Amino acid sequence: MDIKSLKNYLYWLYCQFELITCSYLMEPWEKLLFYTFNITMLVMVLYTAYIFVPVHISTAFQFFLHLLGNQHENTVSLVK
Amino acid sequence: CFFFISFEETPMLVAVLTYVGYGVLTLFGYLRDFMRQWKIEKCQNATERAEQKDFVPLYQDFENFYNRNLYTRIRDSWNRPICSVPGAKVDMMERVSHDYNWTFTYTGRVIKDIINMGSYNYLGFAQKAGTCQEAAAEVLSQYGAGVCSTRQEMGNLDKHEELEELVARFLGVESAMAYGMGFATNSMNIPALVGKGCLILSDELNHASLVLGARLSGATIRIFKHNNMQSLEKLLKDAIVHGQPRTRRPWKKILILVEGIYSMEGSIVRLPEVIALKKKYKSYLYLDEAHSIGALGPSGRGVVEYFGLSPEDVDVMMGTFTKSFGAAGGYIGGKKELIDYLRTYSHSAVYATSLSPPVVEQVITSMKCIMGEDGTTVGKARVQQLAENTRYFRRRLKEMGFIIYGNEDSPVVPLMLYMPGSNFTTTCHVLKIGLFVFSFYLYVKCIYVLKRS
């Protein structure tokens, strides 16, 4: 039952997407074009995110660490 | 509380998403136009011939772009042919389109018993059986259908005189005159009342017939904001103080054009305030009660009775027989001198054919029914039922979460859908569950009809 209501909900979400972007009104080839364009853009964005976001985050983390964390490293070496 | 008029603000999210939808469709519109230009796709709309390409382009403005690319996609929700009397339930001819609404073919099937929410049949007098129909059929066999003459020549039947006397009694005015077409009543009589050197103050959202009549008359037209009394008062003050534009002479006449119920917004005019302003600045009032006669007021006498005012305060009371009376035509009521003047000088009286006798009899019977003169309380019951239905319908739609415009008591209910896609799907789906809806560009206008079981 849970799966059925989930499927209904997803179908309702898909209908809302179709109505908002007016792809309900388009002819099939226009719909194909529109979805291809959208999915291509989405895939490209996700791929870019997958490649670049970890690098950006770790660089940013190191930058902030350098600003604030230098004192900690010094104290650690002293205690040692 | 009479003056609760709501014009709710559109929610921001809905507005943004509507623009997104229109943006996507516009882009696809440009793509399709490009393909049509380069002959990749067959062009099915009207274009100029090859020899005319060097002249002023006819189909390049935004309206034609919208027509070709957006309106045609959802076109089959409108102009649907019906094949029965537009009463509480109506039969519709089914039609399909194989090339995305450029051409339609009828399947031959008739969809029966669709609840009719799109006709202006407020009191349910458009019916094919009953006292009105029988009386009209008898008059048809006695007088025939054609009059074949104008009012001033040989088209003045005793039926017309009877109708006019009845209309005058119904409205509570001295005299009335009836015309063959509601639109023509406005557009042909306003030029007879005002001319050059007069001022017309017209509401922003007035009907096309009032606008056409005002423009044809040659008077100066100034527009005030919809139902906004401060705007109207400012215009009146400026008119009295400054007079005509170049010569500074006083205006010969100032005529205020308002409607009882505005058909696209469902709002009722603020009549007491308009009458107070009219008396203060000594101007004249022309009230178009096309949608409110028969539909407002405890006994159906219109917006004047709804506010409890006297009909003598309104100088020209105009209305139509098309909506609540189930017939066709219009009337103008007022003082006897005014109507006698209109009998001579109105363009409609001189050139237009007068009302057809069965139609006149339909009006007479339905008006007598509303007034209670036929001995039953059917008319009064219908008027009260309409008021109850209006309030119930509006309340339930609001509870369901729709945005409804207009006054609480007006039987015209504009329901806002905003997005073009939802416009189309609503009309499709409500047809599936048996409702016939009339939609007009961006609105779905549901006008409530008496449901007779």
List keywords for this structure.
heterodimer, A: 80 residues, mainly alpha, B: 453 residues, Aspartate Aminotransferase, domain 2, seven-stranded mixed sheet, 14 helices, globular, disordered C terminus, Aminotransferase_I/II_large (chain B), PyrdxlP-dep_Trfase (chain B)
Molecular structure report:
The complex is a heterodimer of chains A (80) and B (453). By secondary structure, chain A is an all-alpha fold. Chain A is 89% helix and 0% strand. Chain A has helices at 2-20, 28-79. Chain A is elongated, with a radius of gyration of 24 Å. Chain A starts with a helix and ends with a helix. The model of chain A has no long low-confidence stretch (mean pLDDT 84). Chain B is α/β, with parallel strands linked by helices. In chain B, the strands form 4 sheets. A 7-stranded mixed beta sheet of chain B has the order 4-10-9-8-7-5-6, sandwiched between helices. A 4-stranded antiparallel beta sheet of chain B has the order 11-13-16-15, with helices on one face. In chain B, α7 runs parallel beside α8 and α12 (357-371) crosses α13. Chain B starts with a strand and ends in a 6-residue tail after the last strand. The chains are: A mainly alpha (80), B alpha/beta (453). Chain A binds chain B through residues 18-27, 30, 34, and chain B through 17, 20-22, 24-25, 28, 73-74, 100, 419-422, 424-425.
CATH class of the largest domain in chain B: Alpha Beta
**Mean pLDDT over all positions of chain B:** 86
Low-confidence stretches of chain B: 438-453
Strand arrangement, major sheet of chain B: 4-10-9-8-7-5-6
Helix content of chain A: over 70%
**Terminal CA distance of chain B:** 32 Å
